[in-house]
Design a protein that fits this description.
Order of helices and strands: EEEEHEHEEEEEEEEHH
Structural class: alpha/beta
Radius of gyration: 17 Å
Number of strands: 13
Number of helices: 4
Distance between the termini: 8 Å
Length: 225
């Protein structure tokens, strides 16, 4: 299984469908399991950290017109510019992101909330060149976290539904503590759509304890490649 595929995706796997959105994995056979999402809101559909795939626009269309493309991690520009150009909408990034690449689409920055929505912007990590935000709508129960937690194979140990990123296991992100989401969507892996609050609490509280096991599992995966 390759870590990451670079060629355009000719198909995709749908994940994380609920009333107000859907996710997809463009290359379900890669180890990183790069996941993307479309969030339906009053202004329109927000496409989050997208990896492009053939016919993906048909998936967005089920929820309305695309109003913007959002990048939540400074390493997740992925295909944001291409999709924004195709839909003639801006690319949105948190206001505190540095070193933003040039885009052909209009670039806009946002602060406390995703414009026109109830999604609050949480600063998850901003250090050592890693800039990460999360989106949280407390009313509809949706939390979107691009990197600090996930459930791709290298995030989790056996029994974990959500795993903290290997580099953050000793210092799990405090901004995610105390949240009570109904669903947690990731930038890597399939989301957790049931009993999500407990799964997130367990991930954050057990991250340090499970660190040696996760590192051993990841070393085993590397040696098998």
């Amino acid at each position: 299984m390759p870590l990451k595929k670079s060629q355009p995706a000719t198909d995709y796997e749908e994940i994380d469908r609920w009333e107000d959105g859907v996710g997809w994995i463009a290359h379900p056979d890669e180890a990183m399991l790069r996941a993307s999402h479309a969030l339906a809101t009053e202004p329109g559909v927000w496409v989050v950290d997208p990896v492009d795939a053939a016919d993906i626009d048909d998936l967005f269309a089920e929820f309305g017109d695309v109003t913007g493309v959002v990048v939540l991690l400074n390493r997740h520009y992925r295909d944001a510019d291409a999709i924004a150009q195709r839909h003639d909408v801006p690319v949105y990034v948190p206001s505190w992101f540095d070193d933003v690449p040039e885009t052909e689409a209009e670039l806009r920055r946002f602060d406390a909330t995703l414009p026109g929505t109830d999604f609050r912007v949480l600063t998850v990590f901003d250090s050592f060149g890693w800039a990460e935000a999360a989106l949280y709508d407390e009313e509809n129960g949706t939390l979107v976290v691009p990197e600090s937690v996930g459930n791709a194979p290298y995030f989790t140990t056996p029994g974990e539904r959500i795993g903290v990123h290997p580099m953050l296991r000793l210092t799990p992100p405090s901004s995610l503590r105390g949240l009570r989401p109904e669903r947690v969507l990731f930038g890597h892996g399939r989301g957790v759509l049931d009993d999500a609050t407990r799964a997130l609490d367990d991930a954050l509280s057990g991250a340090r304890r499970a660190t040696p096991k996760l590192y051993a599992e990841n070393l085993r995966l590397l040696l098998q490649r």
